[in-house]
Amino acid sequence: MVKLNVTRNVLMGLCGLLVVHSHALADVTARVDRPSVDLNESFVLEIMVDTNIDMEPDLTVLDENFYRGQLSQLSNTSIINGQIRRSRTWTIALMAKATGKQIIPAVTVGNEKSEPVSITINEPTNAPPGEADVFITSEVDQTEAYVQSQILYRFRVYRAVATRQEGRRDPGISGAEVLIERAGDERSYESILNGRAYNVVERVLAIYPQSSGEISISPARFEARVLRDGRITGRKVFESEAHMVKVLPIPPPPTDFPDAAWLPARDVHLSEEWSRQPNEVAAGEPVTRKVTISALGQIETQIPALIPPVVDGMNVYADKPDLSRLFEAEGIRGVRRDQYAMIGVRGGPAEIPKLEVPWWDIATGEWRVASLPARTIEIDAPTEDVLLPPPTIPDTTNEAGADSAAKSSAVPDGFWKKVSQLIAGIWLLTVVAWWWSSRDQKREPREPEPPPIYQQQAKFIKAAKKAAAANDKSGVRVAIIEWGRLQWPDNAPRSVGDLAERVASPLAEELRSLSASSYSSAAGEWDGGSLAKSLRSISVLIKDSEMTTESPLPPLMPPGI
């Protein structure tokens, strides 16, 4: 009994040590949602531990240089390759007390600390027009850009009062042809302007001009009814500033790379991964090499394809590339991963050549080269050759042995002839039975399978473009509504106006114009060319009421601070 109690105490002590050890080994990570903010703007600090523990972070270290806002937490459990991973995340809204480069000190969770995080606090740049309750601002990160390079367009909606029935319209862009991508999710934070608290919603668009010239960005719009002193106003329209951007042509390629693909970016990184150590490769055994190239300020489809290396002594087989993107403070980072299966065909050294990717640095206006160094792989030759046994040749000189072997076989004469005749007969009966069964059979016609949804949608979009180009309003309405039924089968739009609320500009505005031209008594002449052009790219709104605010938001800081 005493021995049992001792064993139990030892096990409990070991369990306690394991728990303490796991807490001590918890990795604490801290990061902010933006690297640079104004003094009167709030930002979000995120603290994450790679295990689900009961301890709380010590946030008092933040009070010296920052005002603390609301704190929230989330526990997460995920299963990756059969392994269970748990984590816990705290998010807290902060607002700096002074300008300059501020250091968010290390935050302690249990026995571990996060790394300090730096953030730049700028002087306030946005001042409200007078004492406006609602206003909107916009900006571009550069007024000169290169063809296919990224232009970041930001617009912010400031609200000091509650609003109802909000609606937003992205800016229209004219001039050079452009590609528009959403650069991350919308952000919501607090801002103090002239002592007044505003709720701010920020949206960032990445614009990629496809030709040189100039692009004109019209004002972004925000429409809403304002709730003031318990009364709601009529619908009001708020607009931001307009912008002009000059688009420069593509410069000539560098002399060392005359066939270089055009890749404008802020930075480009190359990295590689191997399925196992490349110096432990045997002839005939495959090894996988994965090469990743990432470009900040560029979408993944613009990253040029990497040419598979030619390696003497190895066969190289390229797999389908994996394309993805990340969202960072400076825009979109496109990622391309190329994977190769490499098999050594003989023993000895194999030289993998140096990989170089030239790219254009839009910050400095010059060519740069991202590279991976050359690598030599030693392929182990097979330890022994695989030989086939020599064929057996009967000894015809020994007649007695041949006679005895023939007698031991004991196979009667004509046996194999009868077997062949039986197989031939079965085959002939099979052919006759097949002919008889199919002679009078009437095959029922099969109904063709419907084409995939995306092909059906492409058909209706094509029909809508054709009708719009011909100024056929009825044809446009029929085709675009049919497309909407395929897009939202459970909640199909009933009209063109309903569909306009579910897509982004400029298509939304063109659909509203079509609806007004069809049913409004004061509608003017409708031009279908603009609608046909807007159908080149369709962006579906995921949420229709992301900015709905039921009541005025309280200020981040209590009065009197």
Structure description:
With 561 residues, the chain is an alpha+beta fold. It has 4 domains: 27-122, Immunoglobulin-like, CATH 2.60.40.740; 134-248, Immunoglobulin-like (Sandwich), CATH 2.60.40; 264-380, Immunoglobulin-like; 456-519 and 526-534, no CATH class. The protein is built from 8 helices and 32 strands. Strands 10, 12, 15, 16 and 17 form a 5-stranded antiparallel beta sheet that branches. Helix 4 packs antiparallel against helix 5, helix 4 (453-469) packs antiparallel against helix 8 (528-534) and helix 7 runs antiparallel to helix 8 (528-534). The radius of gyration is 35 Å and the shape is globular.
Q: Could you list the spans in which at least 5 consecutive residues all have pLDDT below 50?
A: 1-8, 10-25, 384-410, 543-561
Q: What fraction of residues sit in β-strands?
A: 35-45%
- CATH topology (fold) name of the largest domain: Immunoglobulin-like
- Give the second-level CATH assignment, the architecture of the largest domain: Sandwich
Count of the domains: 4
CATH class of the largest domain: Mainly Beta
Structural class: alpha+beta
Approximate helicity band: 10-25%
Walk me through the topology.
Layout (H helix, E strand, L loop, with lengths): L1 H23 L3 E5 L3 E3 L4 E7 L16 E15 L2 E14 L3 E5 L3 E2 L2 E2 L3 E6 L11 E7 L3 E3 L4 E9 L2 E8 L3 E3 L2 E5 L4 E7 L2 E14 L3 E5 L3 E8 L2 E9 L3 E6 L15 E2 L1 E8 L6 E2 L3 E11 L17 E5 L3 E7 L2 E14 L3 E5 L2 E7 L4 E7 L2 E6 L18 H11 L5 H25 L13 H17 L3 H15 L8 H5 L6 H13 L8 H7 L27
Parallel strand pairs: 2-9, 11-21, 22-30, 24-32
Antiparallel strand pairs: 1-3, 3-5, 4-5, 6-9, 7-8, 10-12, 12-17, 13-19, 14-18, 15-17, 16-17, 18-21, 19-20, 23-25, 25-28, 26-28, 27-28, 29-32, 30-31
Helix pairs in contact: 4-5, 4-8, 7-8
